[in-house]
Amino acid sequence: MSKAIVIREYGGPEILQLESVQVGNPGKGELRIRQTCLGVNFHDVYVRSGLYKTLALPGVPGIEGVGVVEDIGSDVEGFVVGDRVTYITSAYGGYASERILAADIAVKLPETIDDETAASVFLKGLTVDMLVNSVGRIQPGDQVLVQAAAGGVGQLLSQWASHLGATVIGTAGSAEKAEIARKAGCSHVILYRQEKVAESVKAITAGRGVNVAFDSVGKDTFAGSLDSLALCGHLVNFGQSSGPVEPVALTQLSIRSTSLTRPMLFHYTARRWRLAAAHAFLESRQATTPVVLTV
Question: Which residues form the Enoyl reductase (ER) domain (predicted)?
Fold first, then answer.
């Protein structure tokens, strides 16, 4: 028997229960992996609290992990027992010592990346790849707003946007977090508890606003992000750590011909070739400009 954390009702952390579970053998197109590290993300909090009702209860949460292949089902190519792999999945099941995993979402890990690093940055790195290369399409000379720039995704996003030649304006809740954001590549940091974000953005950009605003906070920051956009600017809302955003009237976007996107990473990695391309990009970035996260 293996161990897994099971939720049988929505609520606080106290509803997470460690239980014995039967894993079984991998079927067609599947791997059985022994997990060594698990990623913990805001998505998991949303599922546990009931904000996202996308996991059938009782169920095992967790969408990201790293492990070692212990058994291989039929019609699986490219893997051998002992391979180290990482993954993200919308099928959940990550909070477990062993699991069955679809082989087409497993990605081999190079020896240069340890298990803990992979589990802490894989989903975040793929998210940032999606944001800067597919959704936001950062260009040299762009001015970019990153809400919660001292967070995990915020740090990576600030690093990569800065590397691509953008001027990054970050927001943070304290002087300590502001320093983290600066080290991650922010040219300017707005202390959102003391300043009005949109007003500060306009002052920094000489009244123009930003080309792209990246907002993972949601309810508390959405209005400020929208008001920070330049003419034809683009707002990317990719999370809701403060709660879901209220419905938006389309006429709000017409004021400056702005646009709004709410991307989901699983849609951008649903095809194997896109997942492979995103992973290759992340691996190349790790080789040229190593990921550094301050916790």
Answer: 11-293
Q: Is the peptide bond before 263 cis (omega within 30 degrees of 0)?
A: no
What is the four-CA torsion angle of 277, 279, 282, 283, rounded to 10 degrees?
A: -110
In terms of Cα–Cα distance, which of 147, 176, 179, 175 is closest to 161? 147
pLDDT at 285: 65
Would you state the pLDDT for residue 229?
98
In order of their start, the domains of the chain are 2-109 (3.90.180.10), 123-266 (3.40.50.720)
Residue 255 has a pLDDT of 94
Average pLDDT, the chain: 93
Distance separating alpha carbons of residues 71 and 175, to the nearest angstrom: 49
End-to-end CA distance of the chain: give it in Å, rounded.
34
Residues 6+ apart with CB under 8 A from 196: 224
Bridge partners of 33, per DSSP, are 69, 99
What predicted TM-score, i.e. pTM, was given to this entire model? Answer: 0.86
Tokens of 76: 């699986």
SS3 at position 272 = helix
> In a 10 Å sphere around its CB, with 0-12 CB exposed, 13-18 middle and 19+ buried, how is residue 133 labelled?
middle
Distance CA 199, CA 34 (A): 51
Q: Is the dihedral of CA 23, 25, 31, 37 positive or negative?
A: positive
pLDDT of residue 282: 77
